[in-house]
Structure formats: C-alpha cells, structure tokens
Amino acid sequence: MQETPGAPQSERRGWFEERAPQIREFKFTLYLLRQSPLVIVGFGLIGLFIVVAIFAPWLAPHGAEERFWQMPQRPPSWQFPFGTDTTGGDIFSRVIWAARLDLAIALTVVISAIIIGSILGAVSGFLGRAFDEILMRITDVFLAFPALILAMAVAAALGRNLTNLTIALIVVWWPTYARLIRGQVLAEKEKLYVDAARAVGAKPTRIIFRHVLPNAIFPIIVQATLDLGGVILTAAGLSFIGFGAGAGVAEWGLMIADGRSYLFQSPWIATFPGLAILFSSLGLNLVGDGLRDVLDPRLRR
Amino acid sequence: MMTFTLSHVIGDPVAAYITSQEVRLTEEQLQRIIVAHHLNDPLYLQYFYYISDLLRGDWGISRTDSDRPVLVSIQHYLPATVELSLVSMVFALALGIPIGIISAVRKDKPVDHATRVFSLVGVSMPVFWLALILQYVFYYQLKIHNLPSLPSGGRVDQFVWLDHPLQSITGLYTVDSLITGNFPVFLSAVAHLILPGFALSYIFMAVFVRMMRSSMLEVMRQDYITLARSKGLSERVVIYRHALRNAMIPTVTVAGLAFGGLLAGAVLTETVFSFPGIGRWSTGAIVRDDVASIMGFMLIIAVVYMMANLIVDLLYAAIDPRIRLG
User: Fold this and answer.
1) Which residues in B have their CB inside 8 Å of a CB on A?
2) What is the Cα–Cα distance from B163 to A79, expressed in whole angstroms?
3) Which one-letter DSSP state was computed for residue B21?
4) Overall number of domains in chain B
5) Same domain (yes/no): B253, B124
6) What ipTM is given for this predicted complex?
7) For residues B224 and B245, is the Cβ–Cβ distance under 8 A?
C-alpha cells in the first residue's frame, strides 16, 4: 500500500484505486456510525456549534462588546432571546461569539497537544532506551495531577490571561498523546512492514511519519474528539474561577462567573452559557464514544 | 519536584517567604530573606533545602490564610474537602453501580439508552454550572415558595454552630458531631453536604455507570456465566453472585483514578458553595499569587492522588482472589 519513492505504477494507478481498501473500510465505518442515533445527534450538535462559530458575525444580532446600558438584566424576550446581562449585553449574541472563542481555544489546545505529543511519543517509542525512559518519567509527573489542578498551577505561574490559559492547557494535555502514540509506535514497530521499509533503506523519520503514524491515526482521532470536550469543560472551569479572559470578554465560563452574583435575581445570565458548554461538550462526547465503539474491532460486530 | 519547578516559574521564589504584613521591604530585609532561605545557592542546593524544609514540616507561610503556616492551613481545610469528596464518592457509587448493572442487563432496551444519555450528559456537564443550577432550584426556588430548602453554602449553620460548639476530633464535622452526640450540628452539616456532594458526584456517577455497564457486558459473555445459567441458577443469583464480583475490578480502578478528578471538581464546587475546603483556599491563593500555598496545595493533591492509587491496589487483592499481595 505504501508508495515507494519513484515507483512508476503508483502514479499510473491513481490515488483512489491505490487506496480502495481504506476507502471501503471508511465507508463501512460511516455506515456503522449512521446506525447509532446518538452519534447522529452528536454530529448534529457539533455541526451546529461549528456553523455558529464560523458564521458568528452574521448570526449574532449584536456585537460581543455591544451594550444596552439602559436595559441591564432583562429576562428573555423577543428582542433579547436569552435576556441581557448585568451591563446590558445581549446574552444570545455573546453566547454565539463565545462559541467562536471557546472552540478556537479547544482546537488550538488539542491540535498543539497532538503535534507535540506525536513527535515526542513517536521518537520515544522508536528510539527507546534513555530518551524513552526520561520522557516517560516526565509524563508520569504530569499525569500525577488532575488536569484542572495542574492547569491552574501552570496558568497561575504564567499569569492570568487567555493566551496563558491556552498554553497551560497544552502543557497539561500533551503527555496523554505522547503516551498514546508511544504505545502505538511500540506495537507497530515490531510489524513486518516496518522491517520491509527499513530494508529498502527508508530513514527512521520517514518510517515514523509516513508508515507508523498513519496506522496509529484512529486511536488519536477518538482521543482527540473526547479531549475537545474535556478541554472545553476545563477551559470554562478555569475561566470561571478567574483565569483566562479579562472582564467583559464573551467567553462561556466567564459569562457564568458574571451571572453567579446575580443568580437569584437573573438566573438566565448563567443558564445559557452553561447550556452552550453542556451541549458542545455533549456533542463531542457522543461522537467520540460512537467512534470508539465503531473503531474498536472487539465491540464492532 | 514539580512544585519546586513551579515555584521558580511562578516568579520570585522569595515571595513564598514574605508575609502579607511586610509587603514593602527595604533592600536590606530582602537580602536577609534571600540569605536565610538559601535563595542565592545553586538550584540543586535550593532543591535540597526545599525538600529538607518539607520533611521538617516547614511548608512556608500562607498569605491567603492570614499568614498561618501552610501546613496548619492544610490541616484546617483538608478535612472539609475529604468529607465532601467521600460523600460524593458514596453518592456516585451508590447510584452509579446499580444503574450500570441495570443498563448492562437490559442492553439495547430503552432503559439502556436512557442511562447512556444520562451518563454522557454527566461527562459533559460543567460541574460549576450544575452547582449553580442546584443552588437556584433547591435553595432559592424552595425558599421563595416557603418550602424547606437546602442551604446554599458553607459547612454548617453559624447559629447552630454557636449554640452547640463542636469539639474537633477528626475534623470531619459529621463524624465528630456523631461521636460527641451533637445532633443539631450533625443535621446541619449533613444538610450542607447534600447539594455540593451531589453536584460533585454526578460526573463520577456517569463514569461509574459507563464502566460498570461495559465490564458487566464483558463478564456476561464469559463461559462460567453460561455454566451458572445452565446449572439452573436464577438470573438474580447469576448476576449478583457470579458476574458482579468480576465486573467490579475495572470499576475499582476507575474509582481510584476518578478520585483525582473528584479533587479537581472539588475546587470548583467548593468555590460555588463557599465550602471552606482546600479547593477554595487554593483558588484564593492563586488570585493572590500566594506561591507557598499553591505549592503546598499541589503537593497535598499529589500525595492524596498517590494514596488513592495505593488503596486501589490493596482493594484489588480484596476483590480478586487471584491477586495476592506479596
């Protein structure tokens, strides 16, 4: 399946024919996924939030920073579907704008964690020995703390703002991927096709990135889907207790923190951002869970 | 090691030794502190001093907690968090395990789908938001309708506390009040634990339900279950005597791992419910850049986390006769 450098057939056979078995497998996976109503709901929720995040400028009736100073703490109405907050911001618009920010943070964290984790994990699994030993002890230290608490400490160390919050979450999340990829690489390394690649003279970096990692992609996708939900929750939790965005920024966790002081007078201020967190994270968990069931051959048939 | 690294990253380690009264220091005082705490020495020596200070019980001074030593603060706040965590662990196990079993036994029936949704919602639930909603419904709504409502924050009612002072033995209010026969405080403490305990337990309940369901399904496929059934044992006996015990093993592992998450959730729950535990103390410390407290907090969390894992290992041996401690 793997194209060898300069092999003339691979160009003639075309991309689709060459990957026919993978495509068949992919279609079968999609078919299995469609069988589960929960996964469909999950995809629906994710799709909704992605659309909302991308088209926020067109969907939100008001700007994130726009204030109706003369109309603070109004209950939900036709004019303001989710009500207004303490400074007269339209909560509906702010929830939409915050989707953009929160999803961007979650994606940045998970993608960075995958990149850092894959490189370190793959090298560690492939080289073994001292490098492997040192890296695994480092990940042990990171994994000895609950994610939120470690992120708290790191964010506190860096200073409380949104960039540092993102950095703290990356610092917390990469060891998971380093471990995952290392395990995959260790398993794949012993297989025959790696020996074959080595025999034709492929360099270790090429073996790792062209041959081993593509075979380890599915566990990464499942983990990443579930982690996106986890990152959204953790980021919101951190910004709720005062990390992350400064006052006034449209961010779900911060909006809930703002609503907390007026919980009994104006419960809608905290309610709607919370629902947004719940549903975005739920969508990701539904899909991640479904993917895991489908991609795990033991549970498959 | 981790806390040591962090203390240097957090900024000036000198800050860990400055009390809130002496915010404005002369250069001379600053130098004295630096020398007294070996902060001019090379890093590996500083690390050595840090560890030996820890072992001697000198964890620095908590500016968050009116300049008490960190260790005293932890002794003061930790029991509240332990009490809260234990209560929610009990909630989570007591509800999660039976729900998981029912879900597995009735696989693919409506009950099963309902529990899957219930547990996925639990995993996706922002715990601080759930805590707020519970406060709104069970404190505020019940109160404005003149119904008996649950308290919205704190560990015990101040008036009850003043009328019936409690002698501290373990630091767990519920246990102490029972031992000394102080029932008003006991009732108040229990009432204050219900809402935060439930808010904190929902996520873990969800984790237990999922774990219990999948390991039950795994176990029910084994040969010895078929054998037990073919012997004519009732389904009830098969499930509770034969399957459950084996299905418990993965759940115990998850329970141990979940304990760490429980501590993390406690930070948020305590903040919402103004519950005076180490979680709320640590968020206070972070807002004040109180390095010594943050380091102490991280250290105690790591210790508790490791102890939870140790307890899990010991529990294995109790549940699974194939595993012997040796």
Assistant:
1) 1-2, 6, 9-11, 113, 116-117, 120-121, 123-129, 132-133, 135-136, 140, 260-261, 263-265, 267-268, 271-272, 282-283, 286-287, 289, 294, 297-298, 301-302, 305-306
2) 52
3) G
4) 2
5) yes
6) 0.79
7) no
The pTM (predicted TM-score) of the whole model is: 0.80
One domain for residues B8 and B103:
no
pLDDT at A4: 47
Burial class (CB in 10 A: 0-12, 13-18, 19+), B40: exposed
Chain B interface includes A277 (CB < 8 A): yes
A149 touches B: beta carbon within 8 Å: yes
Beta-strand runs (E) in A148-294 = none
Count of domains observed in chain A: 1
Residue A77 has, within 13 A of its CA and on its CB side, a CA count of 9
Is B129–A263 a contact, with Cβ atoms under 8 angstroms apart? no
Count of CB pairs separated by less than 8 Å, A with B = 116
Length of chain B: 326
Q: Check CB contact under 8 Å for A260 and B127.
A: no
Q: Is residue A14 part of a domain?
A: no
Q: Which residues of chain B lie closer than 8 angstroms to A285, CB-CB? A: 120, 123-124
Residue among B129, B278, B283 with most chain A CBs within 10 A, to mutate: B129
CATH of the domain at A240: 1.10.3720.10
Confidence of residue A280 (pLDDT cuts 50, 70, 90): very high
Q: Of the ranges A98-112, A114-128, B80-94, B222-236, which is most confident?
A: A98-112
Report pLDDT digits (tens) over A243-254: 877 777 878 888
Residue B96: pLDDT band by 50, 70, 90 thresholds?
Answer: confident
- What domain range is A148 assigned to? 36-300
Whether B172 and B312 share a structural domain: yes
Which pairs from A84-91 meet CB under 8 Å and 24+ separation?
A85/A255, A85/A258, A85/A259, A85/A266, A85/A269, A86/A258, A86/A261, A86/A262, A86/A266, A86/A269, A87/A248, A89/A62, A89/A64, A89/A65, A89/A250, A90/A61, A90/A62, A90/A66, A91/A255, A91/A268, A91/A269, A91/A272, A91/A273
Separation of alpha carbons B305 and A143, rounded Å:
10
Question: For residue B305, what is the domain's CATH number?
Answer: 1.10.3720.10
Task: Give residue A37's pLDDT band: very low, low, confident or very high (50, 70, 90).
Answer: confident
Choose, out of A140, A233, A293, the residue to mutate when testing the contact with B (most B CBs < 10 Å): A233
Looking at the structure, do residues B90 and B212 belong to the same domain, yes or no? yes
Residues B135-170 pLDDT 10s: 888 877 777 777 666 776 667 666 666 666 666 666
Query: Residue A108: pLDDT band by 50, 70, 90 thresholds?
Result: very high
Give B290 to chain A, closest Cα distance, Å.
10
| Structural domain harbouring B50 | 2-58
Looking at the predicted structure, is the pLDDT value of residue A110 above 90?
yes
For position B325, what pLDDT does the model report? 56
- The reply to whether A293 falls in a domain is yes
Of all residues in chain B, what percent carry a pLDDT higher than 90? 0
Residues 232-271 of A with CB under 8 A from B: 233, 236-237, 240-243, 253, 256, 259-260, 263-264, 267, 270-271
pLDDT band of B126, cuts 50, 70, 90: confident
Distance from CA of A119 to the nearest CA of B (A): 23
